[in-house]
Amino acid sequence: MLYLLCHHSRVELAIGAAGPADCWLERWYQQEAERAVRALDRLHKGVIDALRILGEGFVAHKGSDKLRSELNDGGLKPEEYLRLLMRLVFRLLFCLVAEERGLLPTPDADPRVKERYERYFSMRHLRALARRRPGTSHADRWDALQRIVFGAFTEDAGCSSLGLPALDTELFDAGALGILEDSKLSNRSLLAAMRALDQFTDQSGVLRTVDFRDLAGEELGNIYESLLSLEACYDRSERKFSLTDRGNAERKATGTYYTPKPLIDSVLDATLDPLLDEAERAPDPEVALLGLTVCDPACGSGQFLVAAARRIAQRLVPWRDRSIESPDRAVRIAMRDVIARCVYGVDVNGLALEVAKLSLWLEAFDAVLLLELPQRDIGGQLPAWEELVAQVEWARERGAAVHLDGARLWGCESFYGRSLAEISEPFDTVYTSFYKQLGGLAGAVLAGSEDVIAESKEWRRRRHGGMLYGLWPNAASGLVGLRTRLPRMAAYQEQAATLADAVRGLAGVEVIPDPPHTPMMHLLFHREAGAVRAAALRIAGEDRVWTFAQLAGTDVPGVCRAELEVGDATLGWTPAAFRDLMQRLLTD
Length: 588
Fold this sequence. Notes:
Blueprint: H1 2-6, H2 24-60, H3 65-73, H4 78-100, H5 111-120, H6 123-132, H7 140-154, H8 187-198, E1 199-201, E2 207-209, H9 217-226, E3 230-235, E4 240-245, H10 249-254, H11 261-280, H12 285-290, E5 294-296, H13 303-316, H14 327-341, E6 343-345, H15 350-364, E7 368-372, H16 385-397, E8 401-405, H17 413-416, H18 420-424, E9 429-433, E10 444-447, H19 450-464, H20 472-484, H21 489-503, E11 509-512, E12 520-525, H22 529-543, E13 552-553, E14 560-565, H23 575-587
Parallel strand pairs: 5-6, 7-8, 8-9
Antiparallel strand pairs: 1-2, 3-4, 9-10, 11-12, 12-14, 13-14
Helix pairs in contact: 2-4, 2-8, 2-9, 4-15, 6-8, 9-13, 9-15, 11-13, 13-14, 13-15, 14-15, 21-23, 22-23
């Protein structure tokens, strides 16, 4: 491929060429650029078609009486209705782009959660349906999209059962769709709108699908600005919604004008590049670059800000840590820092600002894969080392960072036959606890690169308070645990295996996993949780032996679960005494 690209014939002048700019490579580049412009123009048309379809669909549905009443009475003006529809379309575009970039569902979601979202709630599912069927008059798909998917984005914690994060943006605020949230939309209209966004016919008449993965942030801005010339109309007598193109009337009225990319590049060449050159000559180029400020006082949909942030980020990357394997991820990390510190935008149009923030967010989003070692919810199980390395490599290939939640990492050495440093080495950041397994009063530690730790200090100050000089008892107790309990982890692991052997075959008790991978395990009791809890309290009162403070239910009726963490006290149990104790929890 490189040979074909670099062959001397590629820079030969075509017959009748006026100069070097007419060589074959330049001609091919111009053809692709023109094709990209045509594709973007078709997406603009698809967005307008989707707005029209959605506007007509909401008004026409029998479950939208309140919407029709508001439009008829003048409580909701047609232009306000159009803004709500635009907000909805940009929600759909955001989800389409985020899914294709692997950002939804979140990369660290459980595979079963991802499958659930993909199969029933994803944009891919809607796109596939739109290609196969016209849809019905039912409104169940709109209800699922609005209440479950959009609803998850407005929750503080997102929706873990679908792998959807909370989104801190006004576009997804509760109530942002206004009366549309209480209106109905048929499956037929929703799928038709999805077809308008997803498909287009090229010049040769072939039906193609839009590549949302490579839709750049400024292209979202282009789409928004192309909609400013639309005028919404509502015919009360026929209860019909329509759109007409007013040309530049809205732009002139609001002072909003589309800024072509060549003009943006020219402005940045003349204004920003000299400042970047000067910053790179400073004693500390990284500090100087991040000290620049770019403000657009009429930022519109943010195209200028996105372009400026990208230039700063590209200059910043060479002055940073070269250990980041993925160049794309290095730029995204730099973009995130630049957007947080260097670029500012102001605009009188609220929706334009939301589009600008989304454009910047999509440019800077840095995916993270979170792995927990050991996995507490399944009894402290650990993946095989080869499987763990494969998961990390999978994330790396996709430009994602990898974080280790290692609250109980201290007990993993025996299973892997590796030191804690070796186990932690593949990860970008590592969290571990001083009170779990080590027995400290409280506290945890986060290890990572200098820039990540610098950001986490601010997070600690705002959310969890306290500095080490004020929390010295916690730090001291953690240090004691490191000196006394950490050297005993191998003994804890050996005792866990011994106790698991002791109850193997005991009717009514199961060990998860068997044998234990770490000093912790889950014990499943085939008895109601209340009965096991009552037996534990009787044993505590009669024999002064405390077993389990908490019992959790399971998906199996009549089966409860207890978590056993082997520590100093548990080292004194003999196998026979432990088996007898478990038997009493089942029968007392």
